[in-house]
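It would be a great kindness if you could assist me with a short task in structural biology. The matter concerns a single protein, recorded as an amino acid sequence and a row of backbone structure tokens. Kindly check, if you would, that the fold set down in the tokens agrees with what the sequence suggests. Thank you for your consideration; the sequence and its tokens are set out here:
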Amino acid sequence: MPGIVPHRHCVVCGKAIEPEEIFCSDRCERKYEEERKRQRNFMIFMLLLLFGLLMMTILFAPK
């Protein structure tokens, strides 16, 4: 399509940016990293909860 400049979109806010960029600003990059940390912490919590429930099932199961 003529007239369209090659570009990408910021993975956080969707703003058009240069093709070699990933984020449009430091603010979007920080926001992305904070979200990744939050997701990682949630996954760790869920795995610990699953492990805890499994251990309770094994330890307190009627014999």
